[in-house]
Amino acid sequence: MKNFDFEHAMHAQMSRRGFLSGVGAVAGLALAARYGCPSLAQLKYDANPFRLGVASGDPLPDGVVLWTRLTPDPLNGGGMPAQDVAVRWQIAADANMRTIVQKGTATASAALGHSVHVEVNGLQPARFYWYQFESGGVVSPIGRTRTTPAFTARPERLRFAFVSCQSWQNGYYAAYRHLAGQDLDFVVHLGDYIYESRIGDNIKRSGTVPEHVRVEPKTLEQYRLRYSLYKLDPHLQAAHAVLPFIVTWDDHEVENNYAASRDQNGSPAAEFLQRRAAAYQAYYEHMPLRRANMPKGPDMMLYRRLSFGDLAQFNVLDTRQYRSDQACGDKRGPRCPENLDPSRVLMGSAQEKWLLQGLDRSAARWNVLAQQIIMAQFARKASLRDTFGMDSWDGYPIERARLLNFLAQRKPSNPIVLAGDSHTNLVSDLKADFDKVDSPIVASEFAGTAITSGGVNPKSAEAYTSDIAGQPHLKYFDGIKRGYVSCTLDRKTWHSDIHGVENVLDAGSPVRISSSWVVENGKPGVQRA
Fold first, then answer.
1. Phi, psi of 482 (to 5 degrees)
2. Direct distance between the N- and C-terminal alpha carbons of the chain, in angstroms, rounded to an integer
3. For 424, which of 97, 110, 447, 479 could close a Cys bridge (C-beta 3.0–4.6 Å)?
4. Phi/psi of residue 98, nearest 5 degrees
5. What's residue 42's pLDDT?
6. What value, to the nearest 5°, has the Cα angle with vertex 220 and ends 217 and 223?
7. CA–CA dist 393, 178 (Å, integer)
8. Cα 85 to Cα 226: distance, rounded to the nearest angstrom
9. How many CB atoms lie within 10 A of CB 375?
10. Three-state secondary structure readout of 73-93
């Protein structure tokens, strides 16, 4: 069934730099012969099995994860037989795939939706590589990836973008189109890769969506359909195909505002954990993650640490799987006794200990917390009282205070917090005590807006501006534009550019820098660039 005009994108160049090639059986046979990878004669595809593209992720100095999924009919169950399939892969030192440095055969397991996760090792640090898959005489697009600097290296510069919140039905991925053309080393995705709610009739894209794809996913097959819908987007594929992604999740990969084993509807824990297991498996199947991240039922180890020589260390957090349920009925409001209960957790005790130990031992110039939700205190005014959102760090102020006091006392070098979730751009100083003007600044935070998901109503912008004016640690707010944030860090400064999409309803919309900020090495606090 043809519901979208995606087929042409798989045959076209998906990057202005020409890193991708089209897909076709004739080309596949030619390339398989050239590189000594004979096609699998027993497999015959009636349609291109690489329609969800290729991706890479979790780079190391000597390797990276390569990803694809065989799905000749992605919106109708995948179109694959219920058996494992061999997939050949190769990685090259050049964009034309002439200098092959490694190759092999991986298994596209039926139990994992015929997804492929190849963990390549033995590569050179801090350099680009190109890769490709082949199955049944059909080759995938060519993807580009990059390894990280050696652990002992002293790199002069690092450049990346971070993104979040990409509701498919809410608009086009112009932000990804623009991002794919930038000079970056990698991308960090901070969650809400999909949205799980039912897709209604108010779709802000052309084309139709089959009813069985519209339903709110609760089973593994339904979550696979939702990921397939998203990954068929050519601009999302283009971004994945030119840069490695470092990913973590938030709530919508499972269900809105869920907390550990609790959903927002009060379902029995055992029932919800079945849904969570299906969602976690679908997430793993569609992300360039390692075998160590493979879920075990409803549990999945996702928090991890990546280093970029001595320049930066990234602590990738999971603030969803282990948290206490949101306090105060999960409603914005004044502080309630539950909100201030010291036993409540956001990261969970094991992850909190892991994070603090890693920060304490780090020798990196910049120490990054890549996580989902706004950490800065962000009060709104209602009836002359401060109100707080319970689904952000404001909902877990005791754990936040422990973390910020740790930063104040132990002073790891240049802590930088990245956040998604809020659909707003918010630049903040993080303080040991937000209610005291003279409290020391201990870190800086950059919260990025959504790729497409809805933000602040323009009519409410004035009220937000008024609220922020009374909170000097909040330096910049924009809740209207969609887009992404790019960051360039060297040995002296961290520079963040906020990129805004002019019109999210236009796939070709211009994307422009709307604001720029810097943090100086050894000087806590953000400044306008």
1. -95, 165
2. 51
3. 479
4. -95, -30
5. 52
6. 40
7. 31
8. 23
9. 24
10. EHHHCECCCCCCEEEEEEEEC
HSE of 274, CA atoms in CB hemisphere, 13 A: 6
Q: At 247, is the secondary structure helix, strand, or coil?
A: strand
Give the CB-side neighbour count of residue 370, counting CA atoms within 13 A: 29
Exposure class string for 473-482: b at 16+ Cβ within 10 A, else e: bbbbbbbbbb
Beta strand pairing call for 85-92 and 312-316: unpaired
CA angle, 514 as apex, 508 and 515 as ends, to 5°?
A: 150
Out of 13-27, 153-167, 493-507, least confident range: 13-27
Q: What is the spatial distance between Cα 340 and Cα 54, in angstroms, rounded to a whole number?
A: 45
Average pLDDT over residues 454-468: 88
Predicted TM-score (pTM) of the model is 0.93
Cα separations in angstroms, 20 against 11, 144, 180, 196, 244: 9, 8, 12, 30, 14
Neighbours of 81 (CB within 10 A): 10
Residue recorded with tokens 């909100």: 339
DSSP 341: -
| Largest pairwise CA distance in the chain | 73
CA distance 391 to 326: 6
Q: Which helix (H) or strand (E) holds 167?
A: none
Selection from 503, 452, 363 nearest residue 169 by Cα: 452
C-alpha closest to that of 129 among 189, 71, 54, 179: 54
Residue 306 near residue 248 (C-beta atoms within 8 A): no
Strands 415-419 and 366-370: parallel
DSSP assignment, residue 357?
H
Which residue in 427, 369, 18, 59 sits closest to 243, CA to CA? 59
CB 204 within 8 A of CB 170: yes
Interatomic CA distance for residues 150 and 152, integer angstroms: 5
| Close Cβ partners of 197 (under 8 Å, ≥ 6 residues apart) | 216, 252, 256
Tokens linked to 478: 């924009």
- What is the sign of the dihedral through the CA atoms of 254, 259, 262 and 266? negative
Share of the chain above pLDDT 90, in %: 87
How far is Cα 529 from Cα 521, in angstroms, rounded to an integer? 14
- For the chain, the C-alpha Rg in angstroms (whole number) is 23
The residues with which 107 forms a beta bridge, in sequence order, are 86
- Name 42's Cβ contacts closer than 8 Å, sequence gap at least 6: none
User: Averaged over 53-61, what is the pLDDT?
Assistant: 98
